[in-house]
Amino acid sequence: MNLLDLFNEDLISSVLRSLIPILLAALGGMLAERVGIFNIGLEGMLLVGAFAGVAASYFTHNWVVGVIVAMLAGMLFSLILGYGAVYRKGDPIVLAIAMNILAVGMTSFLIVAVFDVQGVFQDPGIDGIPTWRIPFLADIPWIGALFALTPLGYLALLLVPTLWIVLFRTPLGLRMRGVGERPLAAATMGVNPQRYQLGAVLASGALAGLGGAQLALGNVVLFGENMSAGRGWIAVVVVMLARAHPVGVLGAALLFGFADAIGFRLQSFGLPQQLTDAGPYVLTLLVLILMSGRFRKTREAAVA
C-alpha cells in the first residue's frame, strides 16, 4: 500500500464515522457555552449515553428505543451539572470533572452488574443503528458517503444550520446569548437566566447522549469500558476552537475526525496502534497551545 491509498473514497466514510459522535457532543457543549456554562462533562455524558443506548437496545431489540434512552440518560446525567452549577452555584469545572470520573466508574460497575461481563459487551441481541442510503446520491463518487449515513448522522449535520438559525435569527437565540454574555441585563428584561441555563445544559446532555448512541450503536455495535476514549474532551476543544459557533464547530470537528480517520488507516502501514490512536490527542494539545496565545492577547487587549 502507498500513501495515495490513504486518500480515497473510503476515507470520507471513515471521517464521517469519526466526526458524528464528536459533532453531536460539541453542539451540545456549544449550547451550554452560549448560556455561560462551560461544560467539560461531555466525556461522561457520551459514555453514559453509550451504555444506556446499548442496554436499551439489547433488552428491547430496537435501536430506536436505544437512541431515545441514550438521549434521556444523557439529559438525566447532565442534571448534576445543571442543578449544581445553576441553582447551587457550584463550580462547573469541578462538577464536570467529578461527573466524568463518576461515569467511568458507574458504567464499569454496571457492565458487570447488568451483563455479567468485564471489559466489552457484544451480543447479537443488540440492535445497531442502520445506515440509510439515499438512492442515486449515495452512488456519487467521493461525496456519496454524505448520503449513506445513520439517522443520527443526518441529524447531526442538519443541526448545524438549524442551531445557527436558532442562535442568530430567533428571539430564543437572542435570549440565550444575552444570558451567556450579560445575565443581569437579561434578567432586567424579564428573562429568567437560570431557566435558560438549565435548559441548555439539559440539551447539551441530550446531544452528548445521542453522540454516545452513535458511537456504540452506529459506529460499532457493542459497549466497552471507557469507550468514549477522550472524544468528549475533543468535543470540548472543538467548542473552544470554534468559539461556540455552529459552523465553526462543524469545521473543527471535521479536523479532528480527519485526524482520527487518518490515524486508523495508517495502521495498514504497520504503524503501532498506540501511535496512530494518539494522533487526535496530539492535535488537541497543539490546538490548545495555539489557542492559549490567542486568548492571552484577547485578555491583554481587554485590560488595555
UniProtKB/TrEMBL annotation:
The principal location of this protein is: membrane
Ranges that cross the membrane: 12-31, 38-59, 65-86, 93-115, 142-167, 233-258, 278-295
Tell me the membrane topology, using the record's own terms.
Multi-pass membrane protein
The residue range of the signal peptide is: none
Print the keywords alphabetically: Cell membrane, Membrane, Transmembrane, Transmembrane helix
An example of a GO molecular function for this protein is: transmembrane transporter activity
In the UniProt record, which is one GO cellular component term?
plasma membrane
Localization, UniProt: Cell membrane
Query: What name has this protein been given in UniProt?
Result: Nucleoside ABC transporter membrane protein
Q: Which organism is it from?
A: Leucobacter luti
